[in-house]
Amino acid sequence: MENSKPLVFLSYTDDGAAEAIEIKRRLESELNVKVWEWKNEILVGAPVVSSYSEAVAKSDFMVAVVSPMYWSKQGTKREYDIANAREVELKDTYGDNYHFVLPYIGEWKLPKRADKNYKMAAYTIENLVRSISSQLSPAIMSRSIHSFSEWPNPFVKNGGEIDCLIAIGHNDKQDDLVEEDLGVLGKYINLEERAGHQSHRPAELIPNIANYLHNKSSLYRSETKSIDDCNINSFFECHIDVLLIKHRFDLIRNHNIITLGAGDTNYISRWVLEYYKDTLPIYFRNTSASEDISIRSYSDNKDDLKRDSFSGKDRYSALLAIVPNPFNHEKSIVVAAGLNALSTQASILALSDANELIKNRQPQDSNIAYLVAGVEDRWRAVDYDLKINPNKSN
Predict the structure, then answer these.
(1) pLDDT > 70 in the chain, percent
(2) Residue 20's pLDDT is what?
(3) Where is pLDDT greater, at 5 or 253?
(4) How far apart are CA 340 and CA 348, in angstroms?
(5) According to DSSP H, which parts of the chain are helical?
(6) Which of 4, 112, 223, 341 lies 20 to 30 Å from 288, alpha-carbon distance?
(7) Are 153 and 133 within one domain?
(8) Is there a domain that residue 392 lies in?
């Protein structure tokens, strides 16, 4: 869905057109965003001012290519002023660290505009792309089209098609990653803290996930009378984290993913947990470890965070979360990550059982993340308690 992509409003004048074209190309190819620019978007006969205003109001970022002619044109000055008002609105939603207006200065001399904020000005396209990338997660989450209310969609579509890539942690038989392997993931995966070898216990329950998805697929096919498996274009594969990153990055870009284990044993989990760390209501404070899981509850002041830590006596706690795939926003990633292997097992049980609590969360609560409390017997997770709001008793 096109509207699932973050939207960048591109403001420029003719003397900045070449730079604007390159910015558009880089943003769309590298960050999977949609760029709004007037030559392609304004219909013949449409009112220009209202078209600009509506586009800015729908956008997640505004890039102003501040070329020498920029401040001499009424149109671009108006766009910048509208964007400044939009920034105030978004800071109320996302916090003071969110910057909507991003001027691009390039090699031009910085205009003397004391009334304009150039704090986030970028002098290279590389820095501009990096600046937007660092703020993308709240914009992506605000446009997310998937939650546990729709589970198992999109992993099983209504026609019965399965689309699921399972990522597990590595063991001593695979070489670890080096910086050159990471590419675009380098910003989110810190190799100074190496992931350890993952226990076999999470992988023991992969058949539970497979059976659940297969049963749902069969149910949907029977309802739509698409019984012939040969007509179902399904994908279900399991891969090791380091091998996915090194050799099969195309799978990460093109499929829904279930990643098992925390960031201390699975680099795919580490990437996702770090990418959405400031956005998820339940999160690992250190995404390279599995020391504690924290709960974020907002007061009226969005900058006032209350964190309750679950560790120690709650050692069988786990995070179960669903988020958009940063590389393909029509696809989802589910993270099933515990403080240890048994709690990760418990989160897999919750996912494969598809407890009705997943579908019946209260409207005021987010339906993207849960705290799972595991029940252990003989070094295996045998049951779980799915906590709707960990800051309240269930």
Answers:
(1) 81
(2) 94
(3) 253
(4) 13
(5) 17-31, 38-41, 48-58, 74-94, 125-133, 136-142, 179-182, 201-204, 206-223, 241-247, 249-254, 267-275, 341-353
(6) 4
(7) no
(8) no
Nearest to 193 by CA among 131, 274, 111: 274
Domain boundary among 142, 161, 179: 142
- Note the pLDDT of residue 309: 64
393, part of any domain: no
Looking at the fold, whether 131 and 167 belong to one and the same domain comes out as: no
Mean pLDDT, residues 306-329 = 78
- The partner residues of 165 in beta bridges, in order of sequence, read 237, 257
- 137 and 157 assigned to the same domain: no
pLDDT band at 18 (very low <50, low <70, confident <90, very high): very high
DSSP lists the bridge partners of residue 328 as: 325
Residues 6+ apart with CB under 8 A from 292: 284, 285, 286, 309, 310, 311, 339
How does residue 390 score in pLDDT terms, banded at 50, 70 and 90? very low
| Number of structural domains found in the chain | 2
Q: Residues 280, 320: contact at Cβ < 8 Å?
A: no
The whole domain housing 114 covers 2-142
pLDDT by residue (tens digit) across 68-94?
999 899 988 888 989 988 888 888 878
The confidence band for 1, taking pLDDT boundaries of 50, 70 and 90, is: very low
**Cis preceding linkage at 154, omega within 30:** yes
Q: Max alpha carbon distance in the chain (Å)? A: 74
> Are β-strands 61-65 and 7-11 bridged in parallel, bridged antiparallel, or unpaired?
parallel
pLDDT digits (tens, 9 = 90+) for 357-389: 566 554 434 578 888 888 878 778 878 887 754
Under a CB-based contact definition with an 8 Å cutoff, are residues 383 and 352 in contact? no
- Asked if 207 and 321 sit in the same domain, the reply is yes
Does 217 lie in the same domain as 118? Answer: no
The whole-angstrom separation of Cα 42 and Cα 149 is 37
Report the CATH number at residue 36: 3.40.50.10140
